[in-house]
Amino acid sequence: MERADECLVRELKEEMDLTVKLSDLKLLAVTDDLSPDTANHYVHLTFQTEIGGQEPKLCEPEECEEWKWFGVDKLPANIFPPHAKILRTIKSQKIYLPE
Fold this sequence. Notes:
alpha+beta; two-stranded antiparallel sheet; about 25% helix
């Protein structure tokens, strides 16, 4: 029973030791990730925020090997497919882009 924005603030602290304020979050995109072969449907909410001079820390090494920064024009070729859809939606300058 937690709002999406409150969850994001909590998860950023737990997973990366980053402190952000609810008032600094801006909703950028809402995307659907449909997986007919598994009958799963995920809805992704993507927010923007500023972290200032904070550096992300690896707080859950059992869940993630590392954090890396990439320029939008220099993303790895093996990007997670739902994340590619999020980036296409943001680039369209629309909150929701059905595909």
